Automatic annotation (TrEMBL):
Protein name in the entry: Multisubunit potassium/proton antiporter PhaG subunit
Residue segments, region Disordered: 99-123
InterPro entries on file: PhaG_MnhG_YufB (IPR005133)
MF annotations from Gene Ontology: sodium:proton antiporter activity
Organism: Marinomonas alcarazii
Transmembrane residue ranges: 6-28, 71-89
Keywords (A to Z) from UniProt: Membrane, Transmembrane, Transmembrane helix
UniProt feature, compositional bias: Basic and acidic residues: 111-123
């Protein structure tokens, strides 16, 4: 394997590992569910992207052609992680999970929770 590819793989793994470490630490240390959602969805998604990018470069070199599986996994994660975080946040909101007292705009939580679904248009 050429030196420049080894450097790309190593840097990508280090950056991905750093993001994963920060995401894991944030998940453990942040105080409430609304703050905890930010850490795994942002940092961990970037971390997995770095690891899969390194795998894609390595596998492409071994096979001799572009490895597309890692790219598809990365795309799937980039699409589904924010949607999953949004669903978890909505569940916490409707279960009336209390945020920290220092959280700003808590009145907006009540407004969003109590709003009604849009009505279908009348013909």
């Amino acid at each position: 394997m050429p030196l420049y590819l080894e450097i790309i793989v190593c840097v990508s793994l280090l950056i991905g590992g750093a993001f994963l470490l920060v995401g894991s630490y944030g998940l453990v240390r942040l105080p409430d569910i609304y703050m905890r959602l930010h850490s795994p969805t942002k940092a961990s998604t970037l971390g997995i992207t770095g690891v899969l990018l390194a795998s894609m470069v390595f596998q492409s070199h071994l096979k001799g052609f572009l490895s597309i599986q890692e790219l598809l996994i990365t795309l799937f994660l980039l699409i589904t992680a924010p949607v999953a975080a949004n669903m978890i946040a909505k569940t916490a909101l409707h279960q009336r999970t209390k945020p920290l007292d220092k959280t700003e705009n808590q009145a907006l939580m009540e407004t969003v929770r109590d709003r009604e679904a849009p009505k279908p248009p009348q013909d």
